[in-house]
Structure formats: structure tokens, C-alpha cells
């Protein structure tokens, strides 16, 4: 089968239909994964008793395939009376899966801050919350900007998993076209190009954010 | 928060004349099973300048870090500015704001300008408004002879300048006691004097100072007392004239021979 450029152009709008959901799922999952990852990391840094539990939880999340987690949420939760819309289940699944990795990003971002920073803050009499808010967080954000940006692309690329939950997104739209026309090359290439474009836009946005964090002093106390 | 702080200030005002700034009795500190300090006794009066020296690993840093509880001791009595420090106690912030500390590696906040490094604690801890805080900061940057760098970031300054900013940052809080942990050992030789000069000025202003340093010229000139430590203990204390010319302890003799070549 020859690649038909005209056909690809023709189906472009149809594949594009899924892009809204793809972006929505990617952004929601990125936020979800960051918030959850931050919570796991805080728990891991809290009391001696919580730490091993948090560590086990983070390891467990990272050691199970995302598809297993998605199927679990989608098929098992309803048995216990928890019925979520497919899209929300998908966002939850991807958020939880990536939160395990993003917790590690936060960990590395905090570990990279020399101990002397919080010691200097303590020696000035700054409270723990002020030390976290004015000293640790701003430096951590700089440290995590780059790896977090990389995970935002990974999250974007994992949105097609939602096809298994029948959530209409870009890969799903491409499959719809394929099953209607029996042509696979064009819809897949179009979907691939759209993902590439989204990823590049995402990277550009993250780079801009990074640059701003790098240059903008924390002027407002 | 505030009442505790005011209470301690009030006590100090009453007792400043009689009570020592720092009183250390039988202080012991372990890292896991390793004993870093063994029954240390040391009393420091207000206005006194103490230089602590001794071989690497003798517990100098551990001792002065106990004074502001960056390290927690396990045994003994420790009274700072009239407050008895109990291991694991709450309200350390109220004690630390009156005890300035200067670190070997400066520990300036790299994401804040020199000015913001100085004003952060003034605003968050002393609750000054921006204008008041900046006035205090400028005055202290003047004091360490670096007023023109206020809007720069630490990374734009030389090591000596950074350390002087660190001193100014500590001074902004108007501490009753200043602790220095090898403030010049991370500096290139040509920058050591600018920092020592600032410290000498401070001493002349009557600041109570506890300095861990191997700058024996500074010690001779400024110190009221040299405290020599070895293996977690204070083995000798004497005025510089006596310590340098006639050290009693074998370890001190050896140490002086090594350090003065
Ligand atoms: N956090 C720690 N955990 C375990 N042991 C430590 C810790 N900090 C210091 N020690 C040990 O305690 C002893 C005293 O250390 P300390 O840093 O107080 O020595 P020091 O006199 O300041 O030495 P230096 O001149 O090298 O700075 C050393 O043997 C050191 O290895
Ligand atoms: Mg030391």
C-alpha cells in the first residue's frame, strides 16, 4: 500500500478531533502526577514510621505496568461501588503511575540543595514553613524544571493508553479512521505528527518556564 | 511565639551584666555510637572573644553547632543568652535569632540578591516591613564594606565578598553572640584578610564572638582566650599570649608546631 498524501490531508481533521481530549488528559495527568508525587515525597520525608510505607508505595507504583493500573481502576473499583467516568479513571491511572517517578524528581531536586541552605535559614531563626517556602521550594523548582519537563512529554505520550478505556483521544480517532477506511499508514502518521507537534510545543513551553524560573529572582517575600 | 521571645529578651536585659552569654557544663554529644564531645565545660561572658582551635575531627564544629542547636547534644547543660537548651525543645527559632552564625561555605541563598539575603529573616522573623529591613541591611552591608553589591546575586561575588555578605546577613538580626565556623578556610589566600578585617572590626565593637579558626595571627590579635580541643575535649584554655608562648598540653604543642611550621 502506497502512502497517500492527499488521503492523509483528508483525514487530518478527523484525527485532529481527538486532540482536545489528548491535551486535556495530558495536562490533567501532569498536574495530578505532580501533586501526588509531591505528596509522596513529603510523606517520605516525614516521620520515621511513615517513611518506609511511603517508599514501598512509591516502589509499588513504579513497578507495575500502567496498563495494569488502568485496568485495575477501570474494572476493579466499580466492584467496590466506585464508578468513575472513563476519562477520570484514565487521568487518575496515569497520574498515579507517573507520580511514582515524579516523587523521585522531587527527591533529587531537594537532595541537590546543600544542607547548609536550611542550616543557614535555621541559624537566622526562620521557621520550618518559611524555610521550605522561601529557601527550599524556589531552589527545588529550578532543579526539577528540566526533568519535570521530560516527564510532561512522557505523560503526553502515554495518553493513548486511554484507548483501552474507550476514551476518545487522538490515537482512538486515528483508529476510527483506520477501521472505517482500512488504511492504517496515513492515520498513524498523522497521529504521530500531531503527537510530535504537541511534544515540541510542550518542550518549548517548559523551556520558557525554566528560563523564567532561572532568571526571575524571588523578589516578593 | 512572640511572648517567648520577649520573655527571653527581658530576662537577658536583666541578667546581661552578671550572667554569661554562653554556659556549657559537661556537654556530651554522640553521632550514633561515636562520641564527638566528651564532658565539655566552657563559659563565655558577653563581650568576650573566644578562638577555638584544634586538629581536624576534634569536635570544634560540633561544639559551636550545639550552641545554636544545629546539632543536638545528648548530655550536659547548655545555657545560651539565659535560656537553657534542652534536646528536642520547641521554640528554637527564638534562640537562634539572637545567635548569628557564619559558615565555612558561606551558605548564602543563591536565588536571592545580596539585599534579600539580608532582609529575609528581618522581614519573616523580626517582622520589619520592607523599607525598615532594607535600611538595616544597607547599614550592615556598609559595615562589612560592601554596600555597592546589594543588588547582585551571591554567584556574582568573589568568595571574600560572599563571606562578608554572610556576616552582614547574620549581623542584621542584631545577634547577641556571633559564631564563626572556619570562616576563611574556603577562601583563596588573597581574600582571607578582607574577612578577618571585618571580624576584627566586629570584635572592636564589643561583639561576643566564638570563632573556630586556624588563623593564628587573628587569634593573637583579637582573642581574649584560646580554647584548644582534641578528641572531643577541651584540653587547654589560655589567653593567646600564654597559649602561643607556653602551651601546657603535649597535643597543643604539637598542634602549634604543625600550624606555625
Ligand atoms: N553528622 C555526623 N555524623 C557522624 N559523625 C560526625 C558527623 N559530624 C561530625 N562527625 C564526627 O565527629 C567528629 C568531630 O567532628 P567536627 O566536625 O566537630 O570536627 P572539627 O573539629 O570541626 O573538624 P574540622 O577541623 O575537620 O572541621 C569527627 O570525628 C567527625 O567525623
Ligand atoms: Mg569543623
Automatic annotation (TrEMBL), chain A:
Spell out the CDD domains in the cross-references. Answer: TM_PBP2 (cd06261)
Task: List where in the cell it is found.
Answer: Cell inner membrane; Cell membrane
Please name one Pfam family that this protein belongs to. BPD_transp_1
Molecular function (GO) terms for this protein are: transmembrane transporter activity
Give the residue spans that cross the bilayer. Answer: 23-43, 55-76, 82-103, 144-167, 187-206
One GO BP on record is: amino acid transport
One GO CC annotation, please? Answer: ATP-binding cassette (ABC) transporter complex
Entries under PROSITE patterns matching the protein: ABC_TM1
Membrane topology type: Multi-pass membrane protein
Specify whether Membrane is a keyword of the entry.
yes
Q: Which InterPro entries match?
A: AA_ABC_transptr_permease_3TM, ArtM/GltK/GlnP/TcyL/YhdX-like, Ectoine_EhuD, MetI-like, MetI-like_sf
Highest taxon in the source lineage: Bacteria
Q: What is its main location?
A: membrane
Q: Indicate the segments forming the ABC transmembrane type-1 domain, all copies.
A: 19-207
NCBIfam families given in the database record: ectoine_ehuD, HEQRo_perm_3TM
Q: Give the protein's recorded name.
A: Ectoine/hydroxyectoine ABC transporter permease subunit EhuD
UniProtKB/TrEMBL annotation, chain B:
Q: Domain of life, per the record?
A: Bacteria
Q: Which GO molecular function annotations are given, in alphabetical order? A: ABC-type amino acid transporter activity; ATP binding; ATP hydrolysis activity
The family database entries (SUPFAM superfamilies) matched by this protein are listed as: P-loop containing nucleoside triphosphate hydrolases
ABC transporter domain location is 22-256
Q: Which UniProt keywords apply?
A: ATP-binding, Nucleotide-binding, Transport
Q: Which Pfam families does its entry note?
A: ABC_tran (PF00005)
Cite the InterPro entries for this sequence.
AAA+_ATPase, ABC_ATPase_HisP-typ, ABC_transporter-like_ATP-bd, ABC_transporter-like_CS, MetN_ABC_transporter-like, P-loop_NTPase
Entry similarity comment? Belongs to the ABC transporter superfamily.
Q: What is this protein called?
A: Amino acid ABC transporter ATP-binding protein
* Species annotation: Allomesorhizobium camelthorni
Q: What is the lineage of its organism?
A: Bacteria, Pseudomonadati, Pseudomonadota, Alphaproteobacteria, Hyphomicrobiales
Amino acid at each position: 500500500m502506497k502512502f497517500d498524501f492527499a488521503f492523509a490531508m483528508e483525514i487530518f481533521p478527523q484525527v485532529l478531533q481527538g486532540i482536545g481530549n489528548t491535551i486535556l488528559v495530558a495536562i490533567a495527568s501532569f498536574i495530578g502526577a505532580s501533586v501526588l508525587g509531591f505528596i509522596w515525597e513529603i510523606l517520605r520525608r516525614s516521620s520515621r514510621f511513615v517513611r518506609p510505607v511511603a517508599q514501598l508505595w512509591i516502589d509499588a507504583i513504579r513497578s507495575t505496568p500502567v496498563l495494569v493500573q488502568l485496568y485495575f481502576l477501570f474494572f476493579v473499583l466499580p466492584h467496590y461501588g466506585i464508578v468513575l467516568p472513563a476519562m477520570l479513571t484514565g487521568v487518575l491511572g496515569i497520574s498515579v503511575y507517573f507520580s511514582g517517578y515524579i516523587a523521585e524528581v522531587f527527591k533529587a531536586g531537594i537532595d541537590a540543595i546543600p544542607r547548609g541552605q536550611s542550616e543557614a535559614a535555621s541559624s537566622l531563626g526562620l521557621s520550618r514553613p518559611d524555610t521550605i517556602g522561601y529557601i527550599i521550594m524556589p531552589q527545588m523548582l529550578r532543579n526539577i524544571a528540566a526533568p519535570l519537563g521530560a516527564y510532561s512529554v512522557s505523560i503526553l505520550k502515554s495518553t493513548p493508553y486511554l484507548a483501552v478505556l474507550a476514551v476518545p483521544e487522538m490515537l482512538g480517532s486515528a483508529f476510527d479512521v483506520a477501521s472505517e477506511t482500512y488504511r492504517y499508514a496515513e492515520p498513524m502518521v498523522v497521529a504521530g505528527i500531531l503527537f510530535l507537534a504537541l511534544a515540541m510545543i510542550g518542550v518549548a513551553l517548559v523551556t520558557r518556564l525554566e528560563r523564567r524560573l532561572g532568571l526571575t529572582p524571588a523578589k516578593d517575600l | 511565639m512572640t511572648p517567648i521571645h520577649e520573655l527571653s529578651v527581658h530576662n537577658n536585659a536583666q541578667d546581661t551584666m552578671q550572667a554569661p552569654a554562653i554556659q556549657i557544663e559537661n556537654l556530651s554529644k554522640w553521632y550514633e555510637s561515636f562520641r564527638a564531645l566528651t564532658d565539655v565545660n566552657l563559659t563565655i561572658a558577653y563581650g568576650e572573644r573566644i578562638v577555638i582551635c584544634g586538629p581536624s575531627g576534634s569536635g570544634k564544629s560540633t561544639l559551636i553547632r550545639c550552641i545554636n542547636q544545629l546539632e543536638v547534644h545528648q548530655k550536659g547543660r547548655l545555657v545560651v543568652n539565659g535560656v537553657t537548651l534542652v534536646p528536642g525543645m520547641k521554640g528554637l527559632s527564638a534562640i537562634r535569632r539572637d545567635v548569628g552564625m557564619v559558615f565555612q561555605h558561606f551558605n548564602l541563598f543563591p536565588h536571592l540578591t545580596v539585599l534579600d539575603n539580608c532582609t529575609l529573616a528581618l522581614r519573616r522573623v523580626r517582622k520589619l516591613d520592607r523599607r525598615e529591613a532594607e535600611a538595616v541591611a544597607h547599614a550592615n552591608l556598609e559595615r562589612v564594606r560592601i554596600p555597592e553589591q546589594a543588588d547582585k546575586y551571591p554567584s556574582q561575588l568573589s568568595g571574600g565578598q560572599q563571606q562578608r555578605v554572610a556576616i552582614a546577613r547574620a549581623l542584621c538580626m542584631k545577634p547577641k553572640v556571633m559564631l564563626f565556623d572556619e570562616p576563611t578556610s574556603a577562601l583563596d589566600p588573597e581574600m582571607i584578610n578582607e574577612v578577618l578585617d571585618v571580624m576584627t572590626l566586629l570584635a572592636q565593637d564589643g561583639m561576643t564572638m566564638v570563632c573556630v579558626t586556624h588563623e593564628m595571627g587573628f587569634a593573637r590579635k583579637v582573642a581574649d582566650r584560646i580554647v584548644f580541643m582534641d578528641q572531643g575535649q577541651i584540653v587547654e584554655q589560655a589567653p593567646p599570649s600564654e597559649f602561643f608562648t607556653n602551651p601546657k598540653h603535649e597535643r597543643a604543642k604539637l598542634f602549634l608546631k604543625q600550624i606555625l611550621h
